[in-house]
Amino acid sequence: MTDKYTTFKAEDFVQDDFFIASTINPTDVSNKFWTRLRYAGAIDGKEEIIARKIIDSLQVEPETLPNDEKTELWIRIKQSNKTFQAQKVRRLRRFLYSVSGVAAALFVFVAVGRNFLHREQIAATSAIEQTAPPTTKSTDIQLVLGDEKTLNLEGEEASITCRDEKVVMKSSENGEKTEEIKTETPFNQLIVPLGKRATLTLPDNSLMTVNAGSRVVFPSIFDKDKREIFIDGEAYIDVAKDAARPFIVKTDHLTLEALGTAFDVNTYRQDKVHYVVLVEGLVQVSHNNGSKTILKPSELYSCDANDFSVKTVNTHFYTSWKNGVLQFDSEPLGNIILRLSRYYGQTIDCSLEAADLRCTGILELKDDLRKVLEGIALTAPIKIAYNENKYLITNILKDNTPMYTEEH
To answer: Strand 308-312 and strand 247-250: pairing?
Structure first.
């Protein structure tokens, strides 16, 4: 089934039942199928993008297929593309060629618009962004090699190095282990759960320090013209210099492009505000709203889904976590508690009154969480309680009640 797509042009894709169904009603199965072909170079990516734009331009809503027909449609797809006879999809294909002037007009657009589409490809959703996280949850650090093998690394910290089609893994619990990686497989993933951290050396020798609760998607070998990864979470990246291949970081809201530089990117999916802090070099930040910004060293780029701002900061406040230290200056306690909760992988509830307190200081993250919270309580008027496996920052102290209580 896969070989036939090698020579497909846009006009071939829009006549293919499986491709039409994948565009109108994509599933995990179909997404993985097309991602595998893209990465293996088994299809012409430009022609695929053109074909998808043609189908999307018709504005056919997924609801045109009732649920029972969708189920029957995908059963037939799995059995064989040759026997795929879904009536609604056939109707769409006939519609493409029955509307007066549509085919001619669209392919005139194809002829004159290829350069425009090429420029838009970087901004468009790439295959690496479509890589789904593993469905199996684990409290261990996980390295997922393509879609074939998942390796668990026990312990709070791990080191992973990818080089010469091999990956070398080290952790305090597992020791050192080497695995071969297939360069033709889809993207690999590093999953770092809450309470854990990892370092990742990429195939180009770029070094990443990956914080708790983060996911990194990366290839076994970078392309000849670019180095592209995807991040959900936080990582400090020291990019290896390579003038011929820009280093591109994709996130939910942003695309970062650099050549040789060092920066921290914080893009936890559940957070409303994401940020990039540049330590050295230059980075171009492109927002999904179409704006582009060139960052200089010591600048902080922060954004939400719609807007952004840039200001000069002390970068150490944003990068010290990678050295086991949390440093902050007039930072809301609520923000500090959120970072501690992720770093230690423990639940910490903080009252709204306490969360608004502004704090300045340095915390040694090598200490256990209780000592760290007690250190905050030495300078901030808060009360700490521990109950049912979680910490409670409940109220501001205004009397002589104990700083720390443990309930049973």
So the answer is: unpaired
